[in-house]
Structures
1.
Amino acid sequence: MRGKRITQNILSNWMALAVSTAIGFFLAPYIVHRLGNVAYGVWVLVASLSAYMGLLDFGLRGAVMRYVSKGKAQGNHTEAQDAVSAALWIRVWISLAVFLAGAVFAQIFPRLFAVPSAMAHEARLAILLTALTVSMTLWSGVFAGVLTALHRYDALSLITIIQSTCRAAGFVWLLQHGHSFLALVLCELCISFLANAMLVVTALRNYPQLRLTLRRPTKEVFQKLWTYSFYALLINLAIQVVNYTDNLVVGAFTSTAVVTLYAIGGSLIMYARQIVAAMTTTFAPLASTYEAQGSQKDLRSLLIQGTRAALVVSLPIEVALFLRGETFISLWMGPQYAHPSGTVLRILLISLVVCTGSAASGGIVYGMEKHKRLAKWAILEAAGNLGLSIFLVRRIGMYGVAWGTTIPSLIIEVVYWPPYICNLVGMQVRSYLWQTWGRTVLAAVPYGMACYFVERYWPVQSLAFFFLQIAILLPLFPLALALIYRAELVQILRKRFPKWTRFQLNNDGEEIQSTLTSLR
């Protein structure tokens, strides 16, 4: 039942991600060419600032997920109710603070960045509307934490699909009628309101035992939430610096037009990261449940199988983008973007590979409420990222910003992360690395070699043919995986079909005998 639940959650997340990614993929070049490099760059900067406003969440969604999943598993609905009510009360004040922060940003935004004077007024209004959207999303995000704790990823995914589809339709209609990026921001506000309303109603229907009150939380409840959410806040702060400071540094030290070049490469990194996140976010509530039940064996299994799954999903995408990224960007956005955006993409992919491998273990650490040390590492990485990016952008431009992101991430993920997570679940680092990284990377080698030779000797002229090439080469990866993990596959088949097939090796180990068992 657990495996089935994990699979359903992952498939629901991937369905929502597939819709959002497909929409973003086809919509991005349309928006860029309709708005132009400068206007699109301003829009990206506004979106980056809105991400920083979201930091005022203070990590409360993770705390809600932790205590609702724990309370649900132990039948303690009072604990869940206290956590959600307290989070709502705190977020009311946070939402007000976000809007006030947006008002301040709106006044100084055109002075911080090279925004053309003709766009300054629209940029200020866009930040105010974005602040209102973030405020509303922060408050209703508590209910997203409830649905996550209940493993209702299908409901979350459906709401995401509806929101993404309506958003894309609104953007296309507005751009076709000649509206500016300010109209896009207003459209985002209206659609977010509807999506958040659906979120609240769905959460309350799925957890009828939840009785909410909007009053000041007790000292004990507040302290419990703060103990968890403080370190989650630090991690979120670091993630925002790592993921969203790049565009701001590029805009501050170069120009808004260069932001577009950087953002194109960065957007592909974001899509690849979201594919893995859609799977690994399901691990946190599961880890919380296993930890509450004292099942260390299940935690180790979740770590190994989750890391393998993350690598199996991410490596084919990352290998193809690293070897063929410039060709893809040329066909997708235009030849003028191929080399600059492709170079940014290749640099960022170096750190993405190691980050996606540890995404599963990150969910386990959150679920076990052991993320204090992770917060310290994240802050160190963010500080190194920002400092190195500012240092290098003055010397090698936007490529320096990409290296400033990659180098600190490599140090944290390679040196510090594996020993910590292995000690947490009680297993050897060497065994963890071989069972997850070693064997899966080895399976990706034939696919990578094929991508290299196709890129060099089989040029393409259209996106359709590019995807056809990838489809032809992709089976090399699962075939190699089946060969390397053949023993595990046999065990899965035995467990999956015990009444149909029985495999037995003879004494010499030279042949496999298969006998059908009778059904009773």
Note: Residues 323 and 404 are 21 Å apart (CA to CA).
2.
Amino acid sequence: MIFKAHKFDSLPRLAWCASLERGGSEVQLFHGSSVECDERMFSAGAWDGSFQGSALLSSHTVVGSCGQCLDDSVYFIPPSDMYLWLNMIVTETKVLVSNSLAFLLSSAQEELCIEYPDYHFDLLHFRRWGLRKPTCELPTKSGRSVQLVKWENFSFDSQLNFKIHSKPHPAEPQDFQEYFELLSRSVKRTIDNANDHSRQVRYRPKTTISTGYDSTTLSVLAAAAGCREALTFSTQHQDLTKSNDSGLKIGQLLGLQVKEYPRRAYQDLTNLVEAEFSASMPRPGGAPMAVAEPEVEGSILLMGRPGEDFWGLDEIYNLPDLICPDAQNTAGSSYNEFFLRTGTLQFRAAYIGAIHRLALQRISLSKEMMPWRIGGTYDRPICRRIVEEAGVPREMFGQDKQGGSAIMKLTDATLEDFQQFYEQAEIPEWFRSGTRFRGKDLWDGFIHLTHWLSATRKFQPQGKQLYKALIPLTMLSSRKTQRAINWGLRFRGLDWRFLYLFHWGIERIKPRYQLPEEFSRNLKITR
């Protein structure tokens, strides 16, 4: 089996869609200008190994996505990142796979189901289950499903038989030094891969930085790997009375050239800036990044999220298989379309070795790490040791939990356009009227209440024990309590219409994925 590539400069630079027909020996690959491809491999990413070598399928750290043809099968490699996934539609005669849901829907001439507002909860459920559920299904207007695959590699043979292949895991670190060497080595090798001399497109390393633990830690690793550029946001997004979250001074200490942006500057942009940030999940939390487009374009960008899941000391993080029962959003997913368009590789290096989360907490609580413990609920000794040993004073970082992104105040242009979309769409009357919560949903409401009670810190230490004991129930709460949660949103004064930002975002960016008729005709999925 081989790839037959079709490059279109009109497509987002790193977007791709692959098509394979039953019994065929060619995988048709439609892609943007930054995707590199030959007959045996394509790359819209980087990994912790040689770009020219055969290490792709054996790499535990993958940034972006790639594919490889071996004998009678084609392998697809998603990123080592729980916020990102690959999308596919499978029929008896054809399979389409893409790193963009909008590209996949446009190619298949499919649409999201307007009668289904709950994609947000499906994606939240998908993230919570971690590696225990690497696949997920989203309904479409035709009744066919889009299947999502995260983290794990997968393949199709010429008869379209689907198989998942677990990504390799690095060896479990036994102490801080082993873990630090794993992080440093993987970051360096991945950045080197992204800048390999044999690439047609190279990616300069860049890092985000703030006064928090996670991005600061990764900035230290990035600087040691040759990164010299950083970007930061100058104000906290939820409560502007809190301390400035700018990492400008820390970056300068690390020898980085730091570009600083006001966090709300994106609201001055005149286009529908939130559309592409809503097209991967219905909360455009990544929208502040829009003003930094000239800085991130063509880079491999290290991002801190979700270090809290692996470096925190709280027992609620002490869970296997990257499961995250208390996750309340998937905001990290919102950058995907923006970065595909700008040709940016998003590198969440906190996932390196994160499969060994239990060992990381043991290391954090070990005697050797006591000098880097500061107490309180915001305490991450692994991060503190890495940053302080790089020369950053203790008082300059990791003092207050700020947070990097959340649902933002939508721009006036977006609100007007979204309102028009909402009024014209055939949205079910039961949703418009807000009558989702009915007596038969009391059981689902109980599950959601159980999740909240078990996860809240107000009931510690009993809450921790309850949290672990009731994980099987709390993991259901994202899907089984859709009506209860929406009712709760209305009760709290939030606008539940914004669940339709996902549908709106997809519709607004689908035109960028239009292919010439002779190609789109062959990609179309027949009913």
Note: The chain has a mean pLDDT of 87.
3.
Amino acid sequence: MAAPYKPLLDLDTAVAPPRWALLERHLLHTQAQACRDFFAKYFDPCSGHLLCVPRWGGDDGPDDAAENQLNWTMLHALGGPADILDMFRVGFEGHIDQYTKARTIDVPMARDGMYYKEFPVSLDWFHHGEGLSSYLLYGLSDPYDANYERRFRRWASMYDGTDESAPNYDPKHRIIRSMFNGSRGPLMRKATGLDWAGDPIEIEGRFGPGHGERTFGEMLAHFEQYTDVVGDCPLNLEATHLGLVAYMITGEEQYRNWVIDYVDAWMQRTDENGGIIPSNIGLDGTIGGAANGNWWGGCYGWGFTVTVPQTGEKANRPACYSRAHYGFGHGLLLTGDTSYVDTWRGVLDKVNENAREEGGQTVYPHMHGADGWYDFRPHPFSPGVHDVWYWSQRDSDRQRIAGDKWVQFLEGDNPLYPEAELDRSLAQVRDRMSRMAADDTAPDTRLSDDMNSINPAVTESLVRLMLGGIPVGRSAHTLHCRLRYFDPETRRAGLPPDVAALVDAMSDDEVRVQLINLDPIRERHVVIQGGAYGEHRMGSVAVEDGVKVDVPGDGSAFTVRLAPGAGSRLTISQKRFSRQPTFTFPWDR
């Protein structure tokens, strides 16, 4: 099949294969084979069911089952082989079937199925997001799957107020009405330990729960204080990813408008709360309205300190702010408005303004309760600090992550970083496969999360090095990166076979990438796109030999021909976040 684009650049200069390029391709190949072995051991190849005991709950529930294929769609989108996506489809379709059929006995909300309308019936977005992480990125590889569009239209309607059977959203007050929400709607009462922990289960001698519980009583006790779920919570900002995906598939403004409207509501609340995002919004839209007027209240809130049942010790679990910034990233992606970044930067600054001196060193608060700020630590409050730097590319934001090895490499100060990171990732795959080989458990002694740490798809280093991006992992946030690649010969996402890429510098308006064709016999064509979703407009491309050309058309993508064994470094100008994001492949735009 002929390439859909005439190449903008012909790169003919032969280069000696650099070690980073060989490692990169080896890592892609090794992970793929490891995923095949993992799938063969832990999945039923016919039904796609995970070979475990399916349960409901926050400990080892449906989200943990889906996480066994975490990063698989990312691996394919980077250039992993086609069967990775095929196995993911089998596993994800099997997951929906398995957990639709799985039912609780004692937990009210899941007695008719843990999934309804192919979506979890009701839990928090800390868990929803983790379970959906890989599927949210599936559109990078196959946005034309009819099931994908159908599902995200349905799921988005559960959160934008248009599905009356799932009244999660109140458009008048611009709130998601409970921290527990899903396809059965919001939970409008206090949650119980049973709601969180799932049905009673035999533990001793059979299972080893990930949170260290020795009895089901300890599982209940773990969630004993997780009761105050009514009202809106910053974790619900993750739900905007449903609307974002629906918009990037369909281009329909209703989805974009809801995401912006809901994120803007949280910006307004943050501003009204003195620059710090509140952790509870009442059903009437007031700050702290469902937590006795306390902006820091609610489950997972700024003041959420609980007792560990096994030890009696106190533990701080303020998940409210750990992922909220991803919602502001969605606002930036859809509008290009940097005030979304300013809002989250402001949260970081406002919290750190409350630092104090202890024992001759500065310590910073990470919690707030009835007695003010607490949980002072020797490092600044910093959730989302890497994202803020990536989004803004300001020197002042880079200073917040001084010492980060990847950033040092991008500044030219850590030249061995790529090889070291790729070596580390290969060691991770080797370690995980060693542990898989030693796993002699039977399916009826496995919980759904037992295999999560063995999953061999480790794409973090590849996202940084190949794309110049922020790794996604299990946090369910959008892929933010400077470049993405497509193979025009096979019409698929990802680098073509034998091609390696290394983003080695970036600034607000430029990104630099090395491209290498490791095949000494065959030429390759590569389509380079600005951003994960075509959101960055590219202006010109300068080759290190001095050739400089303008990117034609809408500036979203261009094609490079790589002669056998050829490679070069390209410097690409970009106007970031200047185009509407889309999943549509470059040759279909």
Note: The mean pLDDT is 96.
